[in-house]
Fold this protein.
Amino acid sequence: MIETVARRLSAVEQRIESACSRSGRSRSAVTLVAVSKTFSASDIEEAIAAGVTDIGENKVQEAESKLASLERVARFHLIGHLQSNKSKLAVSLFDVVQTVDSSKLGRRLNDAAAAEGKQLEVLVQVNVGEEEQKHGVRAADAPALIAELQPFENLEVTGLMTIPPVGGEAETREYFGNLRALRDRIRDDLGLTPFRHLSMGMSADYEIAIEEGATIVRVGSAIFGRRG
Ligand SMILES: *Cc1c(COP(=O)(O)O)cnc(C)c1O
């Protein structure tokens, strides 16, 4: 059997549905972001034709060349680190920026969004494992950053995103649970009703993430195949 994007997607979809029903969650509570980094615009078109509504890219420049040839029928998420000097381009390309980790970047995005007359949805990236090589704020610093982002009128801060350290299932589950607890605490302490998202889980662990409350999973290779 030939492994097409549509076939892989349908296998992922079944696993998402199972994870939702195992954990008593509605399928509509989880958004699947298909991560197309390194894959072509025609692969993205194939995914969209097969029912994908949300696409993730990790680099602004790579996204720029692909998105130019695509119809705007999906929502585009930036899931990789953003240098603040690329804020303007990022705002013009993406509907959601999942990787805000400083108030400086928040300010640049807000200014760019205001200039375009656009409301930009953003998530705050949390470095749950406090790993040197990863971007994101430490969990302890997330509430202060989110409070600092509140005055930016063209940003809507809707939740948290993380990439946990590579580890076993129990450890991964614990990191996901910690992010959920952090989201709940921030939402309650700051009284933020739109603060609902938890973007966590990739090809290797999206089912665990759903069981732990993910509202957004970011799945690449399980849909598009191995990256070259
Ligand atoms: C590449 C990437 C993914 C998808 O990874 P897969 O293991 O291919 O599913 C998810 N999130 C981020 C931030 C990524 O860079």
